[in-house]
């Protein structure tokens, strides 16, 4: 899945001369976390986060509001004064899992999406969460079953074939390598319809051939690990 399918397209931006006070007002009204900063040609030149704005604001405990000082203080601060130069960006054709990895590695809330120098949108932590909810099938509900499989061709196909033979309809399959033993991987299968099987009966059948780690059904987790 690509960034262009999940990014926020109608992005609020700041100009280099936009004031920090204006940015603070928009942050308060719109509940957003970052602004791309563009020059007069619309080229991305930086990014301002909600933390940048908060750091620039005077403390509410101070007796004097520096914003009221004519010609100086907070009123004179511009986006260009507090923005992060050369922010990390991605293109609209970047994979969403790459975006997730970048957000975790750099501890950032989001990234501008830039194609050929043009700002196309922004992709945020919330967009990544929406992507993951769809990829794992959680938005469609149903039971989830977790298995530990050997990390080689064959076991996953065998598992899914067993589910089909049992009349089980699954909506998504999500896999990840075991962080402690790369010779294994975990498979998470979201089931939409178990037919005439109960979760307990299905696990009894599957445990004859596969290692079942746990299942979650109607909000209740049954753990076998």
The major sheet is characterized as: 5 strands, antiparallel
Could you state the oligomeric state of the chains shown?
single chain
Helix content: 25-40%
Low-confidence stretches: 61-71
**In what order do the strands lie side by side in the largest sheet?**
8-9-7-10-11
Q: Using the coordinates shown, work out and report the CATH topology of the largest domain.
A: CBS-domain
What shape does the CA trace take?
elongated
pLDDT averaged over residues = 85
User: Between the first and last Cα atoms, what is the distance in angstroms?
Assistant: 31 Å
Count of β-strands: 11
Give Rg in angstroms: 24 Å
Q: Can you characterise this structure?
A:
Strand 10 (211-217) and strand 11 form a beta hairpin. The chain is an alpha+beta fold. It has seven helices and eleven strands. Helix 1 crosses helix 2 (50-56). Helices cover 28% and strands 29% of the residues. The chain has a five-stranded antiparallel β-sheet with strand order 8-9-7-10-11, covered by helices on one side. The chain has a four-stranded mixed β-sheet with strand order 1-2-3-4. The longest helix is centred in the first third of the chain and has 11 residues, at 20-30. It has two domains: 3-133, CBS-domain (Roll), CATH 3.10.580; 139-223, ACT domain (Alpha-Beta Plaits). The model is unreliable at 61-71 (pLDDT under 50).
């Amino acid at each position: 899945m690509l960034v262009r399918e999940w990014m926020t397209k109608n992005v609020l931006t700041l100009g280099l001369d936009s004031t920090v006070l204006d940015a603070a007002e928009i942050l308060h009204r719109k509940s957003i976390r970052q602004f791309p900063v563009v020059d007069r040609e619309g080229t991305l030149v930086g990014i301002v986060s909600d933390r940048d704005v908060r750091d620039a604001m005077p403390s509410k405990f101070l007796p004097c509001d520096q914003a009221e000082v004519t010609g100086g203080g907070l009123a004179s601060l511009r986006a260009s004064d507090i923005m992060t130069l050369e922010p990390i960006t991605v293109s609209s054709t970047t994979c969403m899992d790459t975006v997730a990895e970048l957000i975790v590695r750099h501890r950032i809330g989001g990234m501008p999406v830039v194609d050929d120098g043009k700002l196309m949108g922004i992709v945020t932590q919330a967009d990544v969460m929406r992507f993951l909810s769809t990829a794992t099938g959680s938005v469609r509900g149903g039971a989830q079953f977790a298995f530990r499989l050997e990390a080689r061709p064959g076991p996953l196909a065998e598992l899914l074939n067993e589910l089909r033979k049992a009349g089980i309809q699954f909506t998504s399959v999500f896999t990840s390598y075991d962080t402690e033993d790369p010779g294994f991987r975990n498979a998470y299968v979201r089931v939409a319809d178990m037919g005439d099987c109960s979760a307990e009966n299905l696990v009894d059948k599957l445990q004859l051939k596969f290692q079942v780690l746990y299942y979650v059904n109607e909000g209740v987790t049954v753990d076998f690990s």
